[in-house]
Amino acid sequence: ASAVASSNSGEPMEGTSGSLNPTTDTSGIMPEFDPKTMRSSKPGLKRLFITTSVLFSFLLGVPFLWKSVEIYRSPLPFHDIDSLSDQIESTPLRFPCNFHAVFVGFRSTDADNLRSQIQDGINQLTHLSPQCGSCSFSLSVTIQNPAEQCSETLGHNPSSCSYRCGMIKSNDFGVGLDDTVDESLNDVFSGCSANSRKMYSVVVVNKENANGEDEVKAVVGKRRHAWIVGSGLEERNDDMVSRVSEIFVKMFMNGGRDEDSIHGEFMPVGSDGRIVLSFSLLNSNPRDWVYDWDFQRIDDALLAPVTKALAPIANISVESQVLYHTPKSSFSSWDEQLQSYIFRTSDLPFFVNSNEWHLDTSAGASGRSKILQFVVYIPSGSECPLLLQLPNGEISKTNGFISPMWGGVIVWNPGNCDKDSESPIRNTISPQDIEQIVEIFLGQFRQLFGFKSEAIYTSVLGTYKILPSERGFTEWELDVLSRKHTCFNLHSCSTTLSSLSKLVRSLPRMIIKDEIGEQVKYSLKAAKLAQSNASLGGYSSSASSSREARSLAENAFFHPSIMSVSYFSYEHCFAVYSPFFLPVVAHVVLAALREWKRYRQEKAKYLTWLTRKKTA
Amino acid sequence: MLADDMACNARNEYPAQVFNNENHKLNLYGDNVEVDYRGYEVTVENFLRVLTGRHENAVPRSKRLLSDEGSHILLYMTGHGGDEFLKFQDAEELQSHDLADAVKQMKEKRRFKELMIMVDTCQAATLFNQLQSPGVLAIGSSLKGENSYSHHLDSDIGVSVVDRFTYYTLAFFERLNIYDNASLNSLFRSYDPKLLMSTAYYRTDLYQPHLVEVPVTNFFGSVMETIHTNSAYKAFSSKTSNSKINSEMPLNQLSEDDELQKANIPNDELKTEKQKCPYTQMRVDLQEKLEKLENVDTVVNLSIAVMFIVVMVSSSLL
């Protein structure tokens, strides 16, 4: 019976169970034996075992398949990125500054009153709303009377250096050049900004009716101090307080501009923290005359200080070229009165001839640096002299214009417009003309950074003369630039990193290389460093850390491997593998289920037979 | 980006010349034509890389879109297209959702202020169906279900040379001169469905300014925003001494950059470091001695002779 049973269970069945051979069974003894509900032998396990082992081997292979289609994604610190962007949005970055006002030749001794007046004046001008990059200031006031005795009040965080009474004498002012006054004031205040907190000072000097002049002169120096000189100032107390507040806010905090923040259009630093200044000398018709310049000396003597001064903000490199046969694409007309050719401001947008002027040919600049083009255009003989006429009819003093984020153009007319009928002579631009051109270039360079090109500031209260520095920017202007650029860089870094994290999360099957993870990590680190440096008052260190943070974030975001078109979604993966596995898997699972069902049925039949046998 | 298979095609009667009209007046391959991507470089991937800015480090600047947050970009696409796609090189397709995704990333990264997309294919309007980013203006030459047609056939060359939509766009610009202040509205209104044989459809829901106020030079004509420079920065005029170029460079007195100044005394420090290492010192001395020799050639010749003698002697001894 057991041999029969085993042969029966060894045959492959087609799902129709119960078709046992009843004749070989020893069921003749039991008259109620019903082959449909009973079987006399125990059902075997072999069939079940085979099908379930196949199913099991499939299931065992699933983890290996999963591992083989897994993609490598370097873990990005999403939480840190979100917290950085929240932090930057909610708390605008403020830098600590010290403001110090010194009143010389004033008889009153109420320094506290003056201090609160100036504080009110400043608060009025800043509208009490903190902007990113503004100063959280502490104000101190010193009054020095004509007998050289001082009364002073100090602010919350006084600087470590204090003003020694009597160091500033009212005789120093009003005579001699402003530059010498600036230098002498520098000696007084020089030790004070070497530490972390920068100190800005305004000196108000009340002269005792010198030559009967009644005018008030206000000058802002090249470093971090300004002075107002006049007579009879003590009577005009409110006026003086307003002017002092104006100098603190409009000059030292905002850099001589009227708005608080600089738009992105005036932030020409490339995303890798570099700027390339590309100078081109354009001879529009070399058949008339050819000009050349000694650029090496220009770079060494005039441009190097500027480049060095801006080092914390951008890594600047300079290149130059001389081009020939470069006509402009706009038109000019002859003006009989001015005896020259005139082009107007409406022609300026069409001036640059991008077809013929091959300016952007720098091989040294990498893809993400910013190139600023500075063009010196020498008109041809048929258009000489070429002058720019402003809308109000005046002739421009500089003959130059800028295009934000592109660069600037200066039209330089050769001194003598008569062409030599013989072959053109090669001339070199004289050093005096070069200096004039570089002065206009510095004005344009300042404009590209959002500052004014002229060294004067006019407000309702009066005019302020600003001393120009041969570095292109005064130290307090450099401070403003550092603060604003730190803000901009940090903001840009945080938005870039948030965009990157959103993008990465939206493409779950995109490979994230280790390089990207590292860059994100270092970028977050540099951003934190910049924030902490800013709160301590290190302007240039925070500017360079923020620049690094932005550059790393941009490198991570613009990594060439993040291209959504190269990666496929989960649905695609499923669609690729399902034709292989689905049909086979379906059959295997169904077979196992069927065998299990059959085994249970056979087992039930065997059990009923056993009970029958027992009861019988 | 041009597939660029026509100018030097063997069947082109006018080799290296491509005209846009059968009168052959304007050679599109004349002077100053710059094609940045041609031939096999024209792929959907490269196109999306140009838009999003994700290039390899070695890609030169001329092959990158160097735009910033104030730029106005004109994107003109033509070829064969269909419902929500544009064909690239007979092998690939640019899908409308890929384009919309690229534009979204450009907007997030502030790569443009205003973007104008002009598409001249069959069913062109479907290509910008999925756009969501603000600041984008799009016009297509035909609606879904419509074809766009070519304008005329050049029987000399044997192919059609320009499409209708493009032809009428160029005709509009030919009528303008440099000082006309034509608006985009007048450009869009100039398209006549009867002449085009399709409906030129444009979408302005993502573009805020009114089309009547926007000049065509916002996108066409390579026109720059300019600001006049009011005055020079008289940094050198106050100096009473000689011209800066001829005089010596004054020392810079930056109060916080003492570290930088220390780094500007290179030679002494390097020398002291070198003296610490005897080997390098020996080599430096030797090099100095050699440089002092006037007639290096005789020394070399002598030493070669000496070597020869040494070799002879030693080989005879062995």
From TrEMBL, chain A:
Pathway assignment: Glycolipid biosynthesis; glycosylphosphatidylinositol-anchor biosynthesis
Entry keyword Transmembrane helix: yes
UniProt KW Nucleotidyltransferase keyword: no
Entry-linked Pfam families: PIG-S (PF10510)
Membrane topology reported for the UniProt record: Multi-pass membrane protein
Biological process per Gene Ontology, one example term: attachment of GPI anchor to protein
Transmembrane segments: 48-66, 574-593
Compositional bias per record (Polar residues), positions renumbered to this chain: 1-27
Domain of life: Eukaryota
Gene Ontology cellular component terms for the protein in this record: GPI-anchor transamidase complex
Localization, UniProt: Endoplasmic reticulum membrane
Region feature (Disordered): 1-40
Keywords in alphabetical order: Endoplasmic reticulum, Glycoprotein, GPI-anchor biosynthesis, Membrane, Transmembrane, Transmembrane helix
Protein family according to the UniProt entry: Belongs to the PIGS family.
Protein name, per record: GPI transamidase component PIG-S
Record lineage: Eukaryota, Viridiplantae, Streptophyta, Embryophyta, Tracheophyta
